[in-house]
Amino acid sequence: IVSEDSDVDLIIVGDFEDKGNLQRAPIFYKEWHLVQNIDLPVDIICYTSEEFDKLKNQITIVKEAVEEGMEI
Q: What is the pTM of this model?
């Protein structure tokens, strides 16, 4: 359900093996704020391919993204 308090949940799947979970998203937050021209809150979640594949069949935001999200 979308409301005026909604945000974007952006899942990025990439080669993050050399970075811990807390080191992954900050790079993308900086870029998000540089390129967007509207004030839209975002939650950026980064996974390796292996992590994403493991989580897409469990009850997680990844499963919801696979079922209802949009690949860009």
A: 0.75
